[in-house]
Every structure is written in C-alpha cells, then in structure tokens.
Design brief:
The complex is a heterodimer of chains A (473) and B (191). With 473 residues, chain A is α/β, with parallel strands linked by helices. In chain A, the strands form 5 sheets. In chain A, strands 5-4-3-6-7 form a 5-stranded parallel sheet, with helices on both faces. A 5-stranded parallel sheet of chain A has the order 17-16-15-18-19. In chain A, helix 13 crosses helix 15 and helix 13 packs parallel to helix 16. Chain A starts with 7 loop residues before the first helix and ends with a helix. In chain A, 61% of the residues are buried. By secondary structure, chain B is α/β, with parallel strands linked by helices. Chain B is built from 7 helices and 8 strands. A 4-stranded antiparallel sheet of chain B has the order 1-6-7-8, with no helix packed on it. Chain B has a 4-stranded parallel sheet with strand order 2-3-4-5. In chain B, strand 4, helix 3 and strand 5 form a beta-alpha-beta unit. The longest helix of chain B is centred in the C-terminal third of the chain and has 10 residues. Classes of the chains: A alpha/beta (473), B alpha/beta (191). Chains A and B meet through helix 2, helix 3, helix 5 and helix 11 of A and helix 3, helix 5, helix 6 and helix 7 of B. The structure holds iron/sulfur cluster (SF4). Iron/sulfur cluster binds next to helix 4 and helix 12 of chain A.
C-alpha cells in the first residue's frame, strides 16, 4: 500500500483500476454507475445486439428520457402526440432496450424522470468516490459528490454496457482553488463562468479539476453541481469537490444510498476522500471569489465571459471578432443594453430546486417584459413536484412565464423548444455555441437570478438591485 | 470496426476557426437517429450553403483531411460528430489541439486526430491547394517543399488504427480480470 500523499482524484482512480495502464494499453477501469439516455445509446445497444452480448450489470445502469423528449405533457400511454417521428422512435428504442436488458428506466409516470445529471444524484445513485460515466459531456456534474465522473462517446457506452469497464489513460490533475467569499447576488454559476474565463475554453483539456477553497466549501450541493457541471466547458474531463457534511446530509435518506446505520458506515469511508497534505497537482490556479461579479458570456465560446455591469470587451483574436459579429455586439457597449427574445431557466446546470427558488425570488410579483418568451423547465419530476408544493409554478405563471415538464429542452433544442432564428436568449444552460439553442440562435449564459432579472427588463440585466430589495424587506 | 489506417495523401479542407464545437460539426436536431450511417449529409449543416463554407468549396468532397483550429471538437460528447466527418469522407483531422472526448471518439472510428503546433498549421494553411500526407506509421505530416512535422500518437490508439483493432474485443478478453475485480470488492450487485 503506497503511503505517498494522493489527490482526491488519485484515490478514486486507484480504487477502480481493473488492469493497470502501460505503454501498450490504457488502464481498464471499473464503472460503478452508467447513466443512459435516449440520444447517445441506440447505436451502443446495436453493438451489443450485433455480437449477441448482454448488458453485464443492469443493476449498475440507470436510464432516463431527457434530451429529445418533449416538455409538454404526454398522453396516458406515455407518448407525446405530435412528436417528431424520429425522436419518438428513439424514445421507444430506449424503452425496448431497457425492457430487453432489465435496465431501470426513469420513464414517464415513475415520478423519477428528468435530466440524467439531475436524476442520478436525486435518486442517491451518485456516491462519493464512485466512478460514473454517461454518453453526455456534462457527466462532470456528479464530481460535486467526490465522484470521478466524465462523459464518453457512444462506442464507449457500448464498452460499458458490455463489460462495465472502460479504457482510459490517466489524465492530469489541475487544482482550482477559489479563495474568499462570493458577493451578494453572485452564484455558483457566476463562479463556474469565471473559472471558464480564467482557464480558457480548452484550458482544462486532458485534466481532471479539483475545486478547493473557502468559496467552494460554502456552496450547497446544488451549487457544487453547477460548478462541476461546467468543468467540461473549460475543456476538462471532470471536476471534483471533496465530500463533506454538506454532501452526506444531502444524500442521507435518498433511495439509492445505504439506509440507517449502513449509511453512517459508508460515511466513515467517504470521509477519507480528500486530497492529502502534500499531494501534488500537475497545475494549480487560484481564483479570487470576491472579485467575481454576476457574469454573462458575450460570445460563442465558454471563456468569452464578462461582468454583467461591464462594457463588451475588445476582441483579441479573429475567433473573438467573429463571435462579436455573430452576437451583433460592438466593443465598449454596455452588455446590459442588449435586448432579448427568450429567457430559459433550466438544464442540468441550473434546473434544480434551488435554482428555481432563486429565479422565483427575483420575478415574484413582477412581469416578464412584453415580447419576451420565458420558459421554466424543471430538471426532473421531483424538482417539478417540489417547486409546485412551494408555489413556485404559480409565481412563474403569474409573471407570464411558461411552466413546462422536465427535460433538456432549450439547452440543446432537440425538441420543439427553440430560440427563433436570429433571436437572442439569456439562458441558465451551459453552452453559448452558435445555434446551440436552435439554428441561428444567440445565447448569453447567466445565473438563474440574472436570467430572471433579464426577463423582467427585456434585456441583459444585473440581478443585484432585485436581490437588495429582498434583503431590505 | 474501423478500416486500418496507415498513410493518406490528399488535399484538405480548412475550417479556419478556434473552438469549433461538435454542435457545429453536427447540430443537435440531427441526433434523433438510431443509426451511425448517413450523417455526412448533415456535417456542418448550419454552415452549408454560406459563401464561406469550406465544405462547399470545389474539391471538398474529395478531401480526406480536415485542417482545424485550436480545441477542435470541443463541447458535446456526441460521437455523431465523428460519424458525420467520416461519412463525409475525412480520415484525419489536423489541429493544434482537440477536445478530449472528440479525440477518443475519432480514434474509435478510424479518424486520426493529428496534433501539430500552430506554426506548422500556418504553413499548411498557406498552401490551400497543396496535397498533404498524414503518415501514421512514421507519425509524420508531410507537404512537398516543407519540412515534415511529427505528431504524438498514443501507442494503443496507433496500434488500433494501424491494425483496425476492435477495442470492445480487447475489453471482452479481460473478462476474468473484471470478474476478479468484482469478487474482490464483494460485489455481486450491491445496488
Ligand atoms: S440539460 Fe443540456 S447539457 Fe444537460 S444533459 Fe441535457 S442537453 Fe446536456
């Protein structure tokens, strides 16, 4: 047993090595939890069928419908009238594959359906120290629990279905230490965007990030998930936060974790999941939390970020000039002046209950500006039910927003939830790529608070005046 | 199982921008398919038909090599992006850096990711009509009248590409190790 100090990442990696890596081949790693959704899995199930293979561990596989699934209500049979036929058959394909292989599918009517990275933690299937993969790049979300979690391609989905294992070269480690305290109205999303700005859109490539520091410890689990979710937007394989009492309290009692004293026993092991004193990272970056303002993106890559109250920056490359032109922005103009067509609140980045509460607190008693369409899409059935029990749905509807069924929705625009061609959106999702929210769409990424304030004002807006009112009341 | 890859010589298509994400390579609305085939028709769908679209340039359909900018293939894990490029006819992408998941997906599908320094790319870009050779056996990029540039290749990925190795087969052969691992952690299906 090695006594050399290890990082959190090293500990989780070491615990999952089936065959160590060498020059000739990568490590064979064991996967504790494989999350599956309708869009990146059909070709993988076909790989198994072509060779007559079974799913090795259906009990370690959990499926949901989210990416292309509509956000209007299904009928009594769990089908969506008028759905795009291709999307409909993709959904039926996953249902059939789950039946064939005995995989638990969080389907319509289960009360557990939702975005894959909302459902896993919510169901207690995301464990500290686990190795979690999914055919989806935002699998990094689960790192908030001290798991090693990353996205894989469909061929690798087939590998995991068939063998519960994956071939991986050991990535590098990158410490992101966030000192100080986030200011009022500054959220985990603003921090996540600031980290993308600091590292650059490809700055984390080949690395697993570990977030440390006072500002990270102070985050709720929802906040930590938002932060780790966007590790991929800095190009990183994964992001991780060492688990602590915030983690354990959040997980206790959820269906997928051990119950009662067995949970306490599990916690004893989970408490060893931290980076040892003296462990070395390949790289270290320090971010000052107190210097972060509510942050939005101005361009078409994740690192094109700026404070919401600032002027649009001068471009420093051809790529940035092209991004400004696409966004119809001029350097020096205040971004707040930019009028918008759509506000989207949802996604695996900001579709959890805390996010909906934050948006509702800003918009309560106010109206969505004329000409602006605002969609609120809860991350899961459970988030939706919880929000309704708190009356948040009524707050949104009274303000003139749409309250939808759970799904990825306008984050990926695979269903009919799309930003119109040429339209501008303030979105709580994670990608501001050209056309990501529909052909010709233009996206300003922001926190739920900033998105709600923007809906009220009809242009990109600073949420802080609204929050100060709340705290004065 | 991808076709073996040794060396190719071809003209190239230049996608002259950094951070070309997989949403550009294939927009999400084409991901409702349950097949791997036929996606080349949708490669860079939202760029096609624009006057500056490199895939519409004369000869693009015969090019086997795509030359891209930094962080090529970042963003979504969708393997459809690689399937679309392969179906369009590409066998290699030359760029200064790649998104991690794209790189892995590429190797799995016989599309060689060739990482070379930005100044080497600049030399290639300066000759838009040149034929470029990507030689995986020598791990070199060559262009007439220029010094060759070497590129890094993971030994396993290179072996798989050169011989058309099936990675799932490699994992299936480790079944005994996998079972021993499960037994050692006392896992007959704890969840
Ligand atoms: S919400 Fe968006 S980023 Fe998250 S899993 Fe769905 S499509 Fe991917």
């Amino acid at each position: 047993m090695s006594t050399a100090p290890r990082t959190l990442f090293d500990k989780v990696w070491d615990g999952h090595v089936v065959v160590p890596e060498c020059v000739e081949h990568p490590a064979v790693l064991y996967v504790d939890l494989h999350l599956v959704h309708e869009v990146t899995s059909p070709q993988a199930f076909a790989m198994l069928a072509a060779r007559g293979l079974k799913v090795r561990r259906p009990d370690r596989t959990l499926a949901t419908l989210d990416h292309s699934t509509p956000t209007y209500a299904p009928d009594a049979e769990g089908r969506w009238p008028g759905i795009d036929p291709a999307a409909g058959s993709q959904i039926e394909a996953l249902r059939a594959h789950c039946r064939t292989h005995g995989i638990d599918l969080c389907d319509v009517g289960s009360g557990r359906r939702g975005i894959v990275h909302v459902v896993g933690p919510e169901q207690g299937r995301t464990w500290p120290g686990g190795l979690i993969v999914c055919g989806d790049s935002h699998t990094s979300t689960h790192g908030a629990f001290g798991a090693l979690a990353f996205g894989i391609g469909t061929t690798e989905v087939g590998h995991v279905l068939a063998t519960q294992c994956l071939l991986q070269r050991k990535p590098k480690t990158l410490l992101v230490r966030v000192d100080g305290e986030l200011g009022p109205g500054v959220t985990a999303k603003d921090l996540a965007l600031a980290v993308c700005g600091a590292l650059g859109a490809g700055g984390g490539a080949g690395s697993v990030l570990e977030y440390q520091g006072a500002a990270v410890r102070a985050l709720s689990m929802e906040g930590r998930m938002t932060l780790c979710n966007m590790a991929i937007e800095a190009g990183a394989r994964a992001g991780m936060v060492a688990p602590d009492d915030v983690t354990f309290d959040w997980l206790r009692g959820r269906p997928g974790v051990p119950q009662g004293t067995a949970f306490d026993e599990a916690v004893v092991g989970w408490r060893r999941l931290f980076t040892d004193e003296g462990a070395r990272f390949d790289r270290e970056v320090v971010v000052d939390a107190s210097a972060i303002a509510p942050t939005v993106t101005w361009g078409t890559a994740s690192d094109m970020t700026m404070p919401v109250d600032g002027p649009v920056p001068e471009p420093s490359s051809d790529t940035e000039s092209a991004a400004l032109a696409y966004m119809e922005l001029a350097p020096g103009q205040p971004i707040r002046a930019k009028s918008i067509d759509v506000v989207f609140i949802g996604s695996c980045t900001n579709g959890r209950i805390e996010d909906l509460r934050a948006a509702a607190s800003v918009i309560e008693g106010r109206r969505v500006a004329p000409g602006v369409r605002m969609l609120v899409v809860p991350g899961s059935d459970q988030v939706r039910a919880q929000a309704e029990s708190e009356g948040l749905d009524r707050v949104f509807v009274a303000a003139g927003a749409e309250w939808r069924e759970p799904g990825c929705s306008m984050c990926i625009a695979m269903n009919e939830d799309r930003v119109p061609d040429g339209g501008f959106a303030v979105s709580t999702s994670n990608r501001n790529f050209r056309g990501r929210q529909g052909p010709g769409s233009r996206t300003f990424l922001a926190s739920p608070e900033t998105a709600a304030a923007s809906a009220i004002e009809g242009h990109v807006a600073d949420p802080r005046p609204y929050l100060q009112e709340v705290s004065r009341a | 199982m991808p076709e073996p890859f040794r060396s190719i010589t071809s003209r190239f298509v230049l996608v002259d921008r950094d951070h070309v994400d997989t949403d550009q390579i294939i927009p999400a609305r084409f991901l409702t398919t349950t097949s791997r085939d036929g996606l080349g028709a949708h490669a860079f769908a939202d760029w096609r038909g624009r006057p500056d679209c490199p895939l519409d340039a004369p000869g693009a359909e015969d090019a086997r090599i795509l030359v891209g900018g930094a962080n090529f293939g970042c963003g979504s894990s969708r393997e459809h992006a690689v399937w679309a490029l392969v179906d369009f006819g590409f066998r290699a992408v030359i760029a200064p850096s790649f998104g991690d998941i794209f790189r892995r997906n590429a190797v799995e599908n016989g599309l060689l990711p060739v990482q070379v320094a930005a100044d080497q790319i600049a030399a290639i870009r300066a000759h838009p009509d040149a034929e470029v050779t990507v030689d995986l056996e020598a791990c070199e990029v060559r262009m007439a009248g220029h010094r060759s540039a070497s590129f890094p290749a993971d030994a396993f990925g290179r072996h798989c590409l050169l011989h058309g190795v099936d990675t799932l087969g490699f994992l299936l052969e480790r079944a005994a190790d996998i079972e021993a691992f499960e037994v050692a952690r006392g896992d007959g299906g704890v969840r």
